[in-house]
Specification:
Chain B: Pfam families: Trp_syntA. Chain B: One of its GO terms (molecular function) is tryptophan synthase activity. Chain B: Its EC number is 4.2.1.20. Chain B: This is tryptophan synthase. The complex is a heterodimer of chains A (about 400) and B (about 270). Chain A has about 400 residues and is of the alpha/beta class. Chain A has helices at about 25-40, 40-55, 65-70, 90-105, 120-130, 140-145, 145-155, 170-185, 200-210, 210-225, 240-245, 275, 315-320, 335-345, 355-370, 385-395, and strands at about 10, 15, 60-65, 75-80, 110-115, 135-140, 160-165, 190, 230-235, 255-265, 280-285, 285-290, 325-330, 375-380. Chain A folds into 2 domains: about 10-50 and about 90-200, Rossmann fold (3-Layer(aba) Sandwich), CATH 3.40.50; about 55-85 and about 210-390, Rossmann fold (3-Layer(aba) Sandwich), CATH 3.40.50.1100. Chain B has one domain: Alpha-Beta Barrel (TIM Barrel). In chain B, helix 2 (about 30-45) runs parallel beside helix 12 (about 245-265), helix 6 runs parallel beside helix 7 and helix 11 runs antiparallel to helix 12 (about 245-265). With about 270 residues, chain B is an alpha/beta fold. Chain B has 12 helices and 9 strands. The chains are: A alpha/beta (about 400), B alpha/beta (about 270). Chains A and B meet through helix 1, helix 8 and strand 11 of A and helix 3, helix 5 and strand 6 of B.
């Protein structure tokens, strides 16, 4: 069986687990217990479902991209519109779940890391909704790339702390959030934004996002009368990808394809394609693929997309890769920006640059499979936050 | 198998005092400067040295050790440099261990790492982010090579977990004095003595307290209830703030002398 239900210790094959200071073990055990009890609690589930119906805007719709499909070998291109969720990306699914768990554990303060700012904005939103104090750690480099989202978080009442250590990006924001958590663990929940980190995060965050694939599976079958041939999603830490993949893992006919950030090209060394170009190792509390040197030091990643600019990846993806259930490809900055522009001009949808990596993958896979193929793509986020980066990239004067 | 570290704790118990353990990252302030610092620490009277393996993502460390690690890594410090610093410490006549996050061990090779520790005279390895659940290979490797796996416990560690962790530990138990990252603090949290008391109920191993200890008064206080006093950031701060290498080395010798006095006056 290829479903990757994690074990009690949070292992996916040789990946996952818990590599953290002993100081955090109590909090991780408390969180695991809260998550397990919430899964079985109909009141918790009803509360989350009601929030998704009346606040997130779920179920998210499915849009067929017919004009875009002409550039993708004529394959049918179906977009799962997570960009239409409140706050503009899939991230809200996880933060609402974890914010409810925070209240369940009696904690009043959340901390979060953010790269592109989408998870930070979603966390600040959930904190505002539920009356929690919120501190968001964000690499200084990313606060520059994503200044609009910094302002959004502040408007929502969150404190944004620019992180000036290391590469000043997502990896360093996670380090700083973990330092805060070690210090304030009694009062604080670390609302981790992706399917990485120590157990139970990879399993728990997956559980809050798997609704994407569950909805999409029904929507695709209603529309085309069968399962898709392939499901595609971009992969940084991998939360939107695992969310749309998970319900299809048992469907052997459905290819699962993750698109990593190839930056300037994997061969240049300037990329964030962790599975394609990395090796097994431990980073941020979990064993997975890591971009590292011969001494086990993390190597800085590079991507035009702040949200994918991370030298690690969720352990379940590492496992799905190794057992051959999912495949991972690298998309360069240039390919992603071409797809970004193409979807905008053919469908009137400006995608997040992260998501554009999945769209570039759809162009490749569509051409490979031809017009009879049905591709489901997770349109994980909208591109409003990327307008400045895109304008600079395409030379549009601001 | 008895290590130099085990012998040290037998000796300090006989002298009715605590051991003074100093932390310094390999390659800091430079590859050669680190070796001079080790000798300066030994000259000041430290009983044991922890050689830090500088790491790119030190989530347990505060700004001082982060800066030291960044400086060290910018000079390309490698595993070989860690082992050569370890050898320098053991040849200077003190017990020595390595403190490292887990990934560099896994990358180097779990068995090979334990062997290199033993080959260079090291007594053990402190692994702050390795949980006992992920330790099977490491425990076997340390046993095969006659070195001690040393775990860090925290004030938040409950009694049943303390019992499980300390059972896998040898050499000493590293008790984190507070919930937080490394760095100097103005006072030692009362949580430290409570934690040491709870560990005593489940283990006979020596207990060394670290995190936040920076001066003689604090060393004296901690030596009142612990078997070892660990000081890191305070030494590194001396080296970071010194105008010349010579002044920095003198400053850490002086601080070591102060602290060595403190650990002898605690009881």
């Amino acid at each position: 069986m290829t479903t990757s239900q994690s074990t009690i210790l949070g292992h996916f094959g040789q990946y996952g687990g818990r590599f953290v200071p002993e100081a955090l073990i109590g909090a991780l055990e408390e969180l695991e217990a809260a998550h397990i009890s919430a899964l079985k609690d109909p009141i918790f589930q009803a509360e989350l479902a009601q929030l998704h119906l009346t606040y997130t805007g779920r179920p998210s719709i499915l849009t067929e991209a017919k004009r875009f499909a002409e550039y993708a070998g004529g394959a049918r291109i179906l977009l799962k519109r997570e960009d239409l969720n409140h706050t503009g990306s899939h991230k809200i699914n996880n933060v609402l779940g974890q914010a409810l768990l925070t209240k369940r554990m009696g904690k009043k303060r959340i901390i979060a890391e953010t790269g592109a700012g989408q998870h930070g904005v979603a966390s600040a939103t959930a904190a505002a909704l539920m009356g929690l104090e919120c501190v968001v750690y964000m690499g200084e480099e990313d606060t520059r790339r994503q200044s609009l989202n910094v302002a959004r978080m502040k408007i929502l009442g969150a404190e944004v702390v620019p992180v000036t250590t290391g590469s000043r990006t997502l990896k360093d924001a996670i380090n700083e959030a973990m330092r805060d958590w070690v210090t304030n663990v009694e009062t604080t929940h670390y609302l981790l934004g992706t399917v990485a980190g120590p157990h139970p995060f990879p399993t728990m965050v997956r559980d809050f996002h798997k609704i994407i694939g569950e909805e999409a599976k029904i929507q695709v079958q209603e529309l085309v009368g069968r399962l898709p041939d392939a499901v595609l999603a971009c992969v940084g830490g991998g939360s939107n990808a695992i969310g749309i993949f998970h319900d299809f893992i048992g469907d052997a006919s459905v290819r699962l394809i993750g698109l990593e950030a190839g930056g300037d090209g994997v061969e240049t060394g300037r990329h964030a394609a962790t599975i394609t170009g990395g090796t097994a190792g431990v980073l941020h509390g979990t064993r997975s693929y890591v971009l590292q040197d011969e001494n086990g030091q993390t190597v800085e990643s590079h991507s035009i997309s702040a949200g994918l600019d991370y030298p690690g990846v969720g352990p379940e993806h590492a496992y799905l890769h190794d057992i051959g259930r999912a495949e991972y490809r690298a998309i360069t900055d240039a390919q992603a920006m071409e797809a970004f522009s193409l979807l905008s001009k053919t469908e009137g949808i400006i995608p997040a640059i992260e998501t554009a990596h999945a769209l570039a993958g759809a162009i490749q896979v569509g051409k490979e499979l031809g017009p009879d193929a049905v591709l489901l793509i997770n349109l994980s986020g909208r591109g409003d936050k990327d307008v400045q980066t895109a304008a600079e990239y395409f030379g549009i004067p601001l | 198998m008895t290590t130099t570290l085990d012998q040290l704790f037998v000796k300090v118990r006989a002298e009715n005092r605590a051991a003074l353990i100093a932390y310094i990252p390999a390659g800091f302030p430079t590859i050669e400067g680190c070796k001079k610092a080790i000798k300066a620490l030994v000259a000041g009277g430290v009983d044991a040295i922890e050689i830090g393996f500088p790491y790119s993502d030190p989530v347990m460390d505060g700004p001082i050790i982060q800066e030291a690690a960044e400086r060290s890594l910018s000079q390309g410090t490698s595993a070989a440099d860690v082992f050569s610093a370890l050898k320098c410490a053991t040849e200077a006549g003190v017990a020595a261990v390595v403190m490292t996050y887990w990934n560099p061990i896994e990358r180097y090779g779990v068995d090979e790492f334990a062997k290199s520790i033993a080959d260079n005279g090291g007594s053990g390895v402190i692994t702050p982010d390795l949980t006992i659940e992920e330790s099977d290979r490491w425990i076997a490797a340390t046993k095969n090579n006659g070195i001690s796996p040393i775990y860090v416990v925290a004030p938040s560690t409950n009694d049943s977990r303390l019992s499980k962790v300390t059972q896998r530990c040898s050499g000493f138990i590293y008790a984190a004095s507070l919930m937080g990252v490394t760095g100097t603090r103005t006072s030692i949290s009362s949580g430290a003595s409570d934690l040491v008391g709870r560990i005593r109920k489940v283990s006979d191993l020596p207990i060394a307290v670290g995190l936040g200890v920076s001066n003689q008064a604090q060393a004296r206080e901690v030596a009142g209830y612990a078997d070892g006093v660990i000081v890191g950031s305070a030494f590194i701060k001396c080296l970071l703030e010194a105008q010349t290498e010579e002044k920095g080395l003198q400053a850490i010798t002086d601080l070591a002398k102060d602290l060595a006095k403190g650990v002898r006056e605690g009881r």
